[in-house]
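Moderator note: this is an archived Q&A kept for reference. The question asked for a predicted structure of one protein chain; the sequence and the answer are reproduced below.
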Amino acid sequence: MRILVVGSGGREHALVRALAESDQESTLFAAPGNPGTAQAATNIGLEATDLDGLADFARAEEIDLTLVGPEQPLVNGIVDRFEAAGIPIVGPTQKAARLEGSKAFADVFMARHDIPTASFRVFEADEYAEASAYLDEVGAPIVVKADGLAGGKGAFVCNTLEAAHDALDQIVQDRAFGAAGDRVVIEEKMDGEEVSVLVLSDGAHYVLLPPSQDHKPIGEGDTGPNTGGMGAFAPAPIVDGALLTEICREIVEPTLQGMQEEGTPYRGVLYCGLMITEEGPKVVEYNCRLGDPEAQVVLPLVDSDLIEIFQNLADGDLRGKSVHTVPGAAACVVLASEGYPVEYETGFEITGVEDAEALPDVSVIHAGTRLTEDARLVTVGGRVLGVTARGDDLSGALDRAYEGVNYIHFDGKTYRRDIGKKGLAHLQTS
């Protein structure tokens, strides 16, 4: 089978690694890929947003299955383009991808279908005065979000009114996120613990992947600005069987049913970012693809053949299917550039990756790296590497991941030292 993975980050490297472990014979391509994907796939010089180029490549190379990693091409309509050309692809259509592409659309959709989430108001960019007055009316704490895609950095959890007005200014007046700030969503701040529940859906049926927990803020203790994710672990101990059943009944199934009723059946990976509150689970956000770094810890726990699963998904038939998982846990610690997610320098040489990968059950996932002409590995992004490990339990997985972190060096290496702390606390009290 000839498979194309679209994207260039850690999620795509994790996906390529998982596909390469399938018992099925396959030829893998990554567009544009990174030095990590090149270890198991052929990197193609096409950007993830070059929809015409990707479709032409898939047609010319007789690609049997295309998997899309990042959200932008999905929101831009890559699935519609491929389906129109008769090219098999996994992912939601452009209309279905609005669940991630527009926070306002998602909030209004949830309100229509009684899916639990925060109370909210939506303001157009030219309604800055009204939005500012609303902030003064409701006060803090409050959450201020750019409506569109902002690389995981467009949501501000504001504990003071001053911070909320500053967030509004960044989005609307400073245009920090460009067109993503054409509308702003102001939401009630929900209290609780965040978890990520990912499902694969053919539009009517779905299968669950292991629940995971991300660490979005840059600083330990969940301080500082949000990032694309500084680490993750799976399975999340807070999600027991009873809670998972409730999440499926109150959130997953109404979401899929609602999309069907509105004529935009959701096919692909549905990421439900949830807050576990005292009133029960509520939706923080939807994503229309695998999470990053959640994919790095979820995929290693899947014992089923991923190529077969994704082929079933592309065929639109998950009826009676399930995903089997291995025992134990997985953890990922993201190594970032100093200054991320604001301003940071790149081009620093990275050493120690091979030593880290020589450790038992440790893999190093490339996110923001490139190889120079003289074969040196250097930093090119904010999130540089993800050190992922499996263990018999969460504690063992974390110990191995942090051991791997200690082998890797580059100027400005930044990482959180408290990944998995909440998970360990739940295990100690259960």
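Archived answer notes: The mean pLDDT is 96.
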